[in-house]
């Protein structure tokens, strides 16, 4: 990695503000993390991609830690398996369909239950091959009405996982493990969320739960959430499911007695007990060891990476600036620190270079262009958690000012790297408050 | 990572052989690395995904090392920019098109010249913002006639890069850097290839070169290559471009005097000097600092990750087994080693477990099911470069047999990890024969 110098970086910050969506969606555009490609389509810039990669690596580590096996299914698929499952032409009118040059019907997969059955079918034959958990992190496509930036789009990156068990107790256990893995991911990245009972909708199956993040403004997306504000309690209800009318702001949480609060909500993840919904329709069975065949019990799990990115921004930014939570895991901010030289003298510039090198160059943004005022404004807009200022304090006392969420402290040059280390995203599985678990 | 035990792994090896394509394409299916999803569409299994990730990480490191900035553009796009460039409806009839729910024309992007212009347009305004190199590693879509497994498909993963320079000398320099980066990648992973002048075709522009790998059987894909077999010489010509008739097997290489050989060839990468082909059509200019505006000079570069995977397999496997080259960089094999216990006694099983732990559990496959014969056969079929056998030699002498391409050696248990380390894929930029360069 050659290091990130502001003069080399393509960061398309802009004063233009898009007309719709939440304030955070607009800030992501203004800060140059994403750029619109027409209704419901977005590109991610180099800085935005860094946030995506940090979030993706966290969820990949969580899946690997519970024995998930990463695969890659095609996004473009033929109709046959969708006809078998009964979802062809029935995906809430949100499935993109097209024909290939030979006139065969195809679709852009909005979900991969059919694909996973096809991947496993005929190869997974015995109860001894189960349980099995496969996952991918790929684009999904839905012809949805575009709303609120990255929250409701026509193409989006999701980590989607699919489990296969021989019986219902097995499914319950796998479901519990994936649900707990998602909790660890969302806790680590610093999202506030509730886990609410939900309708299975187009996925089908017996039961499902959504991870819904409270936000002040869902940008026109109408999920209404009532959730418990007590630390660690995940109780919540939404108006998509029965029971939300029974609770309101100020009521006591039926689970822990804490205070309930009403707000908009954004669904960031969804876990489904599909049961035999797909194994019945598509004839996916295993032998049980006693000579009989049995339809497998499946689960389906999805966590929206792009959605998570924006929802974090919605919960933590203010009207003028993005902000990314800092936890024991670290931060999803595009860079752990910005180094801002104040002045053009070689003494200051050399120290700024040295700090850039010491701190992990590929994750630290060195400001070597723009005016001093623009440097501070942009670093603030991006939500970079630490700003290392090399200027008068250095000239006078040989120390630098490090500005973080806890205030400004003066540090020796050689102490900066360790100080900003905590703003990096940890690698692998990491549990806030209890150290690494893998 | 919980480690790879054969009993947990979904590896859909099969005795069925698909009807078409090269022998290596069939072996990839038989070994369970990929599975067909209908004409031109493939899924990648957990073991196949590991190979893909090793190759992807290598090419990402190469792009980062020359200052490439990773982005992500949508695969689904509206027609407007394609109409501007003049490629809507003209992409050799290979562009998938569809309509969204509002009747707007869309396509699945087969390439991203238009997307990159849209990403940069209006944000890159000055010569001081250049040069710029952005890249992504994402799915591309082409409604091609499916042939030869992963080589010619309708959806494929490509690392595609796009450069923007202020003038032609700048483009020449950037082109040279990306071309050299691709050489380093292909050298590291152990591909044999020639660099041949090519027609720019649907990309347009002034000049282009292809990286073409000689193979004995292109599986019905008809590129005919004549290339120099001398070490380090990259001379070659194909029948897609003028001049291939002028050379034949046995002729002397016009560049180095070495022996030429004719064979089938597979294009694994392509680099294009686009010049102002897109900046003219789409009005992408920068100010030059003297008050005038100038159309930017662009380059476009693509390396097919899935194609590279299969082409490596074609060059190195035999009729019965896959094989992955071992270089100073390491190997793209799905696992650096297989640990095969011979016997069921706890002494043998415990040592196998210990070696599995010592060697990097997530990259070493521990055989804990199948018969002993099946273990050896499968490890061989997968092309795993080192087989660690724990059996009689251990019981008698306390050492294990490590079988590699250089033969079998007896090693103390604690020496195995270091021995198999060289079969792992190195992280970051690594130059065969000259150590790390970043």
TrEMBL record, chains A, B:
<dbReference type="InterPro" id="IPR002316">
    <property type="entry name" value="Pro-tRNA-ligase_IIa"/>
</dbReference>
<keyword id="KW-0030">Aminoacyl-tRNA synthetase</keyword>
<dbReference type="InterPro" id="IPR050062">
    <property type="entry name" value="Pro-tRNA_synthetase"/>
</dbReference>
<dbReference type="GO" id="GO:0005829">
    <property type="term" value="C:cytosol"/>
</dbReference>
<protein>
    <recommendedName>
        <fullName>proline--tRNA ligase</fullName>
        <ecNumber>6.1.1.15</ecNumber>
    </recommendedName>
</protein>
<dbReference type="Pfam" id="PF03129">
    <property type="entry name" value="HGTP_anticodon"/>
</dbReference>
<dbReference type="GO" id="GO:0004827">
    <property type="term" value="F:proline-tRNA ligase activity"/>
</dbReference>
<dbReference type="InterPro" id="IPR036621">
    <property type="entry name" value="Anticodon-bd_dom_sf"/>
</dbReference>
<dbReference type="GO" id="GO:0005524">
    <property type="term" value="F:ATP binding"/>
</dbReference>
<keyword id="KW-0436">Ligase</keyword>
<dbReference type="InterPro" id="IPR004154">
    <property type="entry name" value="Anticodon-bd"/>
</dbReference>
<dbReference type="Pfam" id="PF00587">
    <property type="entry name" value="tRNA-synt_2b"/>
</dbReference>
<keyword id="KW-0648">Protein biosynthesis</keyword>
<dbReference type="InterPro" id="IPR002314">
    <property type="entry name" value="aa-tRNA-synt_IIb"/>
</dbReference>
<keyword id="KW-0067">ATP-binding</keyword>
<keyword id="KW-0547">Nucleotide-binding</keyword>
<dbReference type="GO" id="GO:0006433">
    <property type="term" value="P:prolyl-tRNA aminoacylation"/>
</dbReference>
<dbReference type="InterPro" id="IPR045864">
    <property type="entry name" value="aa-tRNA-synth_II/BPL/LPL"/>
</dbReference>
<feature type="domain" description="Aminoacyl-transfer RNA synthetases class-II family profile">
    <location>
        <begin position="51"/>
        <end position="341"/>
    </location>
</feature>
<dbReference type="InterPro" id="IPR006195">
    <property type="entry name" value="aa-tRNA-synth_II"/>
</dbReference>
